[in-house]
Structures are given as C-alpha cells and as structure tokens.
Amino acid sequence: MPPQTLAPGADGDPRLPFQLIAYDEVDSTNTIAKRLCAAEASDRTLVWARRQTAGRGRLQRTWISPTGNLYLSLILRPQVAAREATALTFVAAVAVADAVAAVLSDEATDPAPVRCKWPNDVLVGGRKIAGILLESATTAHGRLEWVIVGIGINVASHPPPSQTIYPATSLAAEGASAITLEAVLDTLCRCLDDRLRQWTDGGFAAVRTAWIAMAHDLGRAIAVDCGGAPVCGVFRGLDEDGALVIEGDDGVRRISAGDVLPKPKTTA
Ligand code: BT5
Prior knowledge:
The structure is a single chain. By secondary structure, this protein is of the alpha+beta class. Helices cover about 25% and strands about 30% of the residues. It is built from three helices and 13 strands; from the N terminus they run ββαββαββββαβββββ. The strands form two sheets. An eight-stranded mixed β-sheet has the order 1-2-3-4-8-7-6-5, with helices on both faces. Strand 5 and strand 6 form a beta hairpin. The longest helix has about 35 residues, at about 180-215. The protein is globular and about 55 Å long. Bound molecules: biotinyl-5-AMP. Biotinyl-5-AMP binds near residues 57, 73, 120 and 168.
C-alpha cells in the first residue's frame, strides 16, 4: 500500500504539528526517513509505520516491531552545530515520558512511575516501554544537515524477557489496554512539539533539567556497560553535553556512550 501523506491542518487531525507520512509496513521508519532526507524532505516530516520488518536499535540491535505498537521517525533540520544534536535524544525522551505519563494518568488505575533511563530509554515501573534512535548527517562545514529522531513505543504488546537485555513493558500491560495507536500518536506529537519548543527557547539546559527530574535511579548505585568491565558508582546526573555523571570509589567520571545495566535479581 503506498504511503499516505497528511499535512498539518489538512485531511488529518488539524492539531497535528508535523507533516505525517503513514505506511502500513516498512523495513525501518529511520531508513525510510533517511531516504526522504536524501530527497530533500522538509523539517518536521514525520514517518509513521504500523509495523517494521527490520526495526533498529543502537549498535545494530533489533527493535522488535509487531503490529499494534508505535514506530515513527521525525525529520528535523535544526540550525545548530552538529555536537548539539545529541540534545535531541533527551528532548525526545522527555516528550515520550510526558506522553506515556499522560496516557497512563488518563487510562490506568494507579499507574506506575514513568522515568527516563540514560541515554535513550523510557521506563514504566522500571521496565522499558520506549526506545529512541538518533541518526544525523553533517555538512562539510560541521553544520547539521538533518537529524532523524526514531521512536518506538510499546502500546499493545512487549517482548518477553528472553528477547531483551532490559525487562520490557507496554501501555496495555500498564493498564491502558483501551488506548488506540492514533490517540497515542496524537498525544506524542503534542508532547514532542512542546519539548522541541522548550529546546529552541531554553537550549539544552532547560531540557536537561526536565530530564533529570524524571531520571531513573538518580542518586542510586548503577552499573554502566561501556564495552569493557562495567563502570559502577552512584548516578549523579547529566553534564552539559548529555554525558552520564557517575561517582565511584575512584572519583567522578563522565560517560558519553554506553548502557545502564539492569540490576541483578536479588534472591530472597
Ligand atoms: C533503542 O535502542 O532502544 C532504540 C529503539 C528505537 C526504535 C525506533 S522504532 C522507529 C524507529 N525505526 C527504527 O528502526 N528504530 C526506531 P537500544 O538502546 O540499542 O535498545 C535495543 C534493545 O532493546 C534490544 O537489543 C533489545 O534488548 C531491546 N528491545 C528490542 N525491542 C524492544 C521492544 N519492542 N521493547 C523493549 N525492548 C526492546
């Protein structure tokens, strides 16, 4: 089925702040968005698919993408230096956390807390409900050409523990089983629009404050996998570049890439 394009204020929801291109099935919405960038797609084009056959996480990992969950990629062309693009992972994370919290507060009885997990996850009750994959291209002068913000949110289902590094959950499992994909998309678009405006107006400092207010395990002991032996210490926050600040026995370290590991299961 060919993609369907809905411009803001056209056939679709007039409140939609992005130009939506909807597909039934794609390999990966980020891959489609990259192709659209090469074809000069404009700022704030949003690619949405009902399922992905080759959904991607970071480091060539797979994003499990059955029908019923949300898969989208937002094309942005911000006028900022390339190194400032990493902020968009945190912009997206707080927007997704806002949207998930809004849905759960409307739909679920006694919802579990929604938190951001460094660098690119959103958790509900300590389980991963959403992941973010940022990809970008720069010009020869070091300016950003485009950024693609890929977002996957588990709405109707989530993978079992055997298929994920971190335990997963979905909106349905958290008590919002009646919510439609369209309603989640609509809420997410509004939250993304708000948080993008906060970034444009207040810079990374504003987004960082918001992210830290929702951070998972802040002030607690964590272990981070950066490729070698896990780095252990107390999670102290984010620095001004979005690096994780961790305080161990040998002092404070900043980590710019890695995965916060799940806590080992304690035996009773
Ligand atoms: C992410 O990577 O969490 C980024 C996921 C981004 C997915 C979106 S969907 C729309 C757009 N198009 C794409 O192709 N991708 C983006 P990472 O932090 O590397 O986590 C990946 C890991 O999460 C996997 O190795 C699994 O352990 C786990 N995982 C896979 N599918 C999952 C799911 N549906 N729910 C929760 N965890 C999952």
